[in-house]
Specification:
By secondary structure, the protein is α+β, with helices and mostly antiparallel strands. It is built from 15 helices and 24 strands. It is 35% helix and 21% strand. The termini are far apart.
């Protein structure tokens, strides 16, 4: 029984799963935390990986490994392989003004046509512009730019600063995959090439960029062993691979934010910026829309009603569909889809008969899901035809969310059993590298719950009306 390992070097922690290469069954796993903050010294990722690997039993009996990780993070290296400054993570918003400048200079149509996305503060290209303007001395030292998963894979193969690695600072050995490259803001996932003009526009000079490997290519071996390293993937693409998404499938991840992503055969080019035209880990594309308000909407409702999340779910299910006309527009932390960073939430249709805990609970759950339906609609505006939605993330644990979702989203909903799907996707990619086949292995699917039901058009219409009146405010 050959074993493969998948790594998820995420914002908050490093997770490792070791799986049966033929079935995908997890046989052991490990975890270690990352520091808080929106900028992090990459050495912390390396030390966390060592701890997580040790807890997972190491790699001595593992036949292949691959690394998935948080997208967009800027890892700037000098010619000696040293990190120039702490990495800026995807959630570091100091580059918001830089993003606006870059979009203004070329126009949203150009960015969408060339890269599939219009830059926002999370993208690497905006962080490089910020570095050029805010820290020019640091910017002048940059000889290579990597992403978090690229850098971890590079270190795993034995490369890095001369004083801290056996193979030294070979920048040409850096490698990535097209899914993570597609989130930089200077990569064309249709032609699979970097746009160096965009890179130079941002940073001010050209640098070494990681070679973009094919989906199942070996990019190196774990130092001191014959264990091949796969190309890895960005976290959303790795999760899609771990979930087994195919063309037409949609994943909806309800964590702190809501992420709607779909596997498609054609890249999206959304000039509005609502849809990011990313690539997936198999050679297809992964258009993605993000909403800022997801699981914490439920937390707010539970706090307001002085109940726990299970009690909130029971309350919501005790009220009728549509909550008697009570509608929550859930922009409690601003919103990205639509782009309203300074927005606040809004409650509509409150009457004496709906001023109850059950109706309020129902309105909060339906408002959360209507916000995600906006994300799904953004993907559909780019030509997606959704056949089902796979619901994952913390808020998917709510029975009310699971049961109400089909009536709001308008498509069948599948809820896989909880799992570390980014790490599982990386492990599945490692098994693919090991097998050397044209397609990734067909692993046994996780246990699933299925939910169906006709869409409540009246509810959706009331929400659209409430949202429109909200958007019309000065």
């Amino acid at each position: 029984m050959p074993l493969v390992a998948g790594v998820d070097t995420s914002t908050q922690s490093c997770k490792v799963v070791v799986c049966d290469a033929e079935t995908g069954e997890v046989v052991r796993q490990g975890r270690a935390t990352h520091p808080d903050g929106t900028e992090v010294a990459p050495a912390h990722w390396w030390h966390a990986l060592q701890s997580a690997l040790a807890e997972a039993g190491g790699l001595d009996d593992v036949a292949a490994v691959s690394v998935g990780g948080q997208q967009h993070g800027m890892v700037a290296l000098d010619e000696k392989g040293e990190v120039v400054r702490d990495a800026l993570l995807w959630n570091d918003t100091r580059s918001a003004a830089a993003a606006a400048e870059l979009v203004s200079e070329l126009g949203p149509d150009h960015w969408a046509a060339v890269t599939g996305s219009v830059p926002v503060a999370s993208y690497t290209v905006t962080k490089l512009r910020w570095l050029r303007d805010a820290e020019p001395t640091h910017a002048s030292r940059v000889a290579a730019v990597a992403l978090p998963h690229d850098w971890v894979s590079w270190r795993l193969a034995g490369y890095g600063p001369a004083a801290d690695s056996p193979l030294g600072p070979d920048l040409a050995a850096l490698a990535t995959d097209r899914s993570d490259a597609s989130g930089t803001g200077y990569f064309d996932a249709t032609t699979n090439t970097y746009d160096r003009d965009l890179l130079v526009r941002a940073l001010g000079h050209d640098v070494v960029l990681p070679r973009v490997a094919s989906p199942a290519e070996v990019i190196g071996t774990v130092y001191g062993t014959a264990c091949p390293i796969g190309p890895g993937a960005g976290d959303n693409a790795a999760a899609a691979l771990g979930l087994g998404l195919g063309v037409g499938d949609v994943s909806l991840s309800l964590g702190t934010s809501g992420v709607v992503a779909a596997v498609t055969a054609v890249q999206s080019h959304d000039r509005s910026g609502l849809v990011s035209g990313f690539a997936d880990a198999t050679g297809h594309f992964l258009p993605l829309a993000c909403t800022l308000n997801a699981a914490r909407v439920l937390d707010a409702a539970a706090e307001l009603l002085d109940v726990d999340l299970d009690e909130l779910s029971d309350l919501a299910l005790s009220a009728p569909s549509g909550a008697g006309g009570l509608v929550l527009v859930p922009y409690l932390e601003g919103e990205r889809t639509p782009n309203l960073p300074d927005a606040t939430g809004s409650l509509h249709g409150l009457r004496l008969e709906t001023a109850s805990r059950a109706y309020l609970a129902r309105a909060f759950v339906e408002g959360l899901l209507c916000g995600q339906a906006d994300g799904l609609a953004a993907l559909e505006s780019q030509g997606l035809v959704a056949t089902r939605v796979l619901l994952v993330g913390g808020a998917a644990k709510s029975r009310a969310v699971r049961e109400i979702a089909p009536r709001v989203l308008g498509v069948p909903v599948v809820v896989p059993s909880p799992g570390e799907y980014v790490a599982l996707g990386a492990a599945r990619q490692a098994a693919w590298v090991l097998a050397g086949t044209a397609e990734p292995p067909s692993w046994r699917r996780a246990e699933e719950e299925h939910y169906d039901g006709a869409i409540d058009q009246a509810l959706r219409s009331r929400y659209a009306s409430a949202r429109s009146s909200f958007l019309a405010r000065p």
